[in-house]
Amino acid sequence: MKALIFDLDGTLVDSVYPHTLAWQTALSAFGIPCPAWAIHRRIGMSGKLLVRAIAREQRRALSAAEVKALSEHHARLFRTIAPSCSPLPGAVELLAYLARSKIAHGIATSGKPSEIKSSLKGLSLSSSAVVVDGGMVREVKPEPDLFLLCQQKLKVERKDCLIVGDAVWDIHAARRSGILSVGVLSGGVGEQELYNAGAMRVYQDPRALLEGIDELGFD
C-alpha cells in the first residue's frame, strides 16, 4: 500500500454526535421530529440524502428549497453546538507519522468548507495536505466521487490506496470506487456492521490503527 484516504467526521474528529444533535434540532424545527438513533445511522451520507430519507420514513414530501433550507439550518446549528471538534485519540499522531514517513494521505469528506474548517485546524495539517470536500464533487457518499478525486490528487493507483472510515456509507463508497477499506469504531457504528458493509479490518480508533499500521502494508 502507498496511500491512505480518510473520512473526517467520526474517523479523525469527534463530531458525529454534534452533527446528530444539530440534524435532530433542525428537523424538529421543520416539523419532522426524529429519534437520534435514526439520524446517527445516516451520518456520513450527504445532507440531502439524509433529510429525504428521514422525511420519506415519516411520509413527508419536501421540496428542493425546503431540503436546502433545512440543510443550511443544520449547518448553522452545528457551528453553534460544536464551534470546534476535538481530534479523536491518535488522529494527530497518525497524520504526523504519515507525513514523517512520506506516506501519501488525504481527507475526503462530505462536509462543506464552512463545516470542516475548525476540525481541519485541530488536526494540525500541513499546508500541502490534500483535502477533498463535498463542494468539490457532483455526488457525495455513498457515491464514490469524493474518494476517487482524492485518489487522483494523491497520484496513486486505486490498488495502492486504502480508505479509512467510521460509517457504512464510507465502506459502501469505497467498494463502489474499487478501493479497499478499513473501519474505525470511533463514529459509533458497530464492528460487525462495518465488516458486513465490506471493511477488511476494523480498529477502535485512529490510535489503534497507528499501532497496527504495519498490518496494513505500511511501515
Structure description:
The protein folds into two domains: 3-14 and 85-216, HAD superfamily/HAD-like (Rossmann fold), CATH 3.40.50.1000; 16-81, Putative phosphatase, domain 2 (DNA polymerase, domain 1). 46% of the residues lie in helices and 11% in strands. It has helices spanning 16-29, 36-40, 47-57, 64-81, 91-100, 113-122, 145-154, 168-177, 191-197, 206-211; strands at residues 3-6, 104-108, 130-132, 161-165, 180-184, 202-203. Helix 1 (16-29) packs across helix 4 (64-81) and helix 3 crosses helix 4. The mean pLDDT is 94.
Overall morphology: globular
CATH class division of the largest domain: Alpha Beta
Number of DSSP E strands: 6
Q: How many angstroms does the end-to-end distance come to?
A: 10 Å
Mean pLDDT: 94
SSE ordering: EHHHHHEHEHEHEHEH
- What structural class do you assign from the helix and strand content? alpha/beta
Instruction: Give the low-confidence spans.
Output: none
Which fold does the CATH topology of the largest domain refer to?
A: Rossmann fold
* Content of β-strand: 5-15%
Q: Find the CATH superfamily of the largest domain.
A: HAD superfamily/HAD-like
Rg, Å, rounded:
17 Å
* Main sheet: strands, sense, barrel: 6 strands, parallel
How many individual domains? 2
User: Per CATH, which architecture of the largest domain?
Assistant: 3-Layer(aba) Sandwich
Give the number of helices: 10
